[in-house]
Amino acid sequence: MFDDFFIRALVAGLGVAIVTGPLGCFVIWRRLSYFGDTLSHSALLGVTLAYSMELNIALSVFIISSLIALTLIHLQKRTNLPGDALLGLLAHSSLAVGLVVIGFLTFIRFDIMGLLFGDILAVTVRDIFIIWVGGALILLVLKLIWKPLFASTVNYELAEAEGLNPDRAKAIFTILMAGIIAISIKMVGLLLITGMLIIPAAMARNISDSPQKMVVYSIIGGLLSVILGLFSSLEFNTSSGPSIIAAALFLFILSLFNIKQSIKLKN
Amino acid sequence: MNSDQNILVKLKDAGFKINDKWLVKGVSLQVEKGKIVTLIGPNGSGKSTTAKIALGIYKKIDGSVEKNTDKIGYVPQKISIDWTLPLRVYDFMLLTENLDEETINHALSLTGVTHLKNKNLGDLSGGEFQRVLLARAISKKPELLVLDEPVQGVDFTGEIALYELIKKISDELNCGILLISHDLHTVMSATDHVVCLNGHVCCSGSPIDVAKNNEYKALFGEQASQILSRYEHRHDHVHTSEGEIKKN
Question: Cβ distance A20 to A241 under 8 Å?
Fold first, then answer.
């Protein structure tokens, strides 16, 4: 069954969507969309490292992204620069360093477009394995830290005062973000991973009135985006990543009509 | 020995500073089971800071904090909730502890907001939200309650009822309460021990002792002192400095 590249892409994409659903909700709630960007930009450095040292791409991206995330947390405590400036600093410098390193690796042919925007043809059975096992692990850990993470998202001081240790939950969540970027980079590409995190969750926000519902709708939205996006990329011969994100955008626009309707009903 | 076991939280010469500016300094106090300790003082005198030191929210502090319980309910003075979160009152009640339906309903009914259970938190009025905050803090049956101006924005009759509720909870659960309040009337009627802050502890003791204190008079004015003395006449018992109640 996995012989067909399209089926492989579908299975991989659905696996990614199940994980980006709940993580994306936290990205929106905690206002971390630019943080996701920074991590995915730094992923390029991880990919080049993987090529030059012959490491597994997912593993190397995971390590580099985690390092960048920890550097960020450290810098936030040590400097007076605002958070968004630090994020920009890390995002663009790691992207630049990644591109410079690629320049040195003349002996390797890079598919830059595939790296930036995702490539369905490149998805192997091994990738599917990494996505589903890695994804299950991420979801398991997220479930374990859900209470402190969610409580500190609502109000940090309440969580801290009532003994939930929000700093630890935040650090673990940061690592999970690095993890999802590592496993989904081949599918969606590093420029569009943040879109996969944010857009289905944003759509879900429009149509839900409780956190649990938002998570469920976000997962459903992600799954639909993958199916819709991949079929249309097959049909129109477009690259997989942008097609998935475009499908997600389409669903988001549909969800806006739902808001208008409910506002009308209220009046 | 026995009284030591009853101590829930104890601050010893505690202080906290940001950028070399002391928010509060040299505070010593303790909250015991079943006792209500109230912090009073003008704006910026370090009341909320002291509460946060006691709760362990501020970690880099001077002096020491000794906390003997993990079962804490907290009502912060200011709470900014981001409305990108779809959050109903029901979800909020479950924020830090898993509670069953009955416990939630009971807590909400105590503060008179059962009807708001399925409402979005963002749609509540200031007073309604304050009642929900209080309900959430007491629902987990804490050993220590820290209430930072718990009735702000609540209407006058509601205010009295909520203070009575706080007193009742302290008796029923035998929990210690660290209360921050502006309302001197209520402070004096329910409190076992008053700590008057002004960047440092300016005076402390039983409500009546504090009312007679000259520093207190200087800080709050003669009128505030009269509130207390008037109150004294309505009372049928006195609080000794050991915190015991003696009938007149």
Answer: no
- Summarize pLDDT for A13-63 with one digit per residue, the tens: 999 999 999 999 999 998 888 888 899 888 888 888 888 888 888 899 999
**Fold of the domain built from segment(s) A5-190:** ABC transporter involved in vitamin B12 uptake, BtuC (1.10.3470)
B127-143 pLDDT, tens digit per residue, is 899 999 999 999 989 99
Return the closest-CA partner of residue B53 out of A76, A160, A153, A170.
Answer: A160
| Residue B93 pLDDT | 94
SS3 per-residue string spanning A113-127: HHHHHCCHHHCCHHH
The residue whose two tokens read 């362990």 is B56
Question: For chain B, first and last CA: distance in Å?
Answer: 29
Is there a contact between A62 and A43 (Cβ–Cβ < 8 Å)? no
Pick from A149, A115, A132: nearest CA to A27? A149
Interface test with B, best of A157, A217, A263 (most B CBs within 10 A): A157
ipTM of the complex as predicted: 0.81
A contact residues 153-172, partner B, Cβ 8 Å cutoff:
153-155, 157-164
Taking a C-beta distance cutoff of 8 angstroms, is the pair B158, B112 a contact? yes
Smallest Cα–Cα separation from A186: which of A95, A97, A248, A117? A117
- Residue A29 CA to residue A25 CA, distance in Å, equals 6
What is the CATH architecture assignment of B1-71+144-157+173-235?
3-Layer(aba) Sandwich (3.40)
Residue A236, both tokens: 């129109």
Report the alpha-carbon distance of residue B121 to residue A210 in Å, rounded: 10
Sign of the dihedral defined by the CA atoms of residues A171, A172, A174, A178, in that order: positive
The Cα angle at residue A97 between residues A68 and A28, in degrees rounded to 5: 40
Judge whether B52 is closer than 8 Å to chain A, CB to CB.
yes
C-beta neighbour count of B240 within 10 angstroms: 12
